[in-house]
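Quick one:
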Amino acid sequence: MQEIRHTPVAPTRTQRLASGGEIDAHRHDDHQIVYAGRGTIAVTTGAGSWVAPATRAIWIPAGTVHRHTAHGELDLHLVGLPAAVNPLGLDEPAVLAVSPLLRELIVAYTRSPEGDGPARLRLRAVLLDQLKASPEQPLHLPAPTSPVLRDLYDVLRADPADNRSLEELGREIGASARTLSRRLRDDLGLTYPQWRTQIRLHHALVLLADGVSVTAVAHRCGWSSASTFIDVFRRTFGHTPGSTLPRGDLGA
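Output:
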């Protein structure tokens, strides 16, 4: 069994991780804000995974066992907050929208993490004010607990472009479409199309962070065209997938 590292105080710092780099499972007694100024960060807990590009941050409540994975070259900004400071009142991980102002506040606050002088305290106060105004984003990919859903999850993660019907997939894993639909509704609160779209979007963020073109990502994640993918991505994240690419390259 992997040992879970316990660091009582969540660090406030900047850190660089190469693509594919990880920070092993650990927990803090403090809350933590995790923000990738470059690249895409994935945070995984026993309840699932959260993926955030540079327009999003991830809130990790105190005591949550979690690990980080870098997709693309990552500039990671970590903000630790005492357990008594919870501006959003969240007791589960969440993805939050990051405005341009909040981004600059996080970067400035983590650039010089030492000291508690008046200027730094004022900076933190403004950061917390902006955090209170950050809407939560529906970007959680829940981890299924049902054995048949885990089997289905493995199939879809291995090939997000798999467009077989739930009935066809059910025959492969030995479960009826009705059983799978009921499990998805009862365990995850999602329909099959909703869950499959979330899996595809999470995979798309990873591919984009690695510099794969928008057209190729659309194809590899199962969308019928790049324009369809761009529309779904924009409605979910509020910006086009091309802005997530390291070079902003929209080509094939």
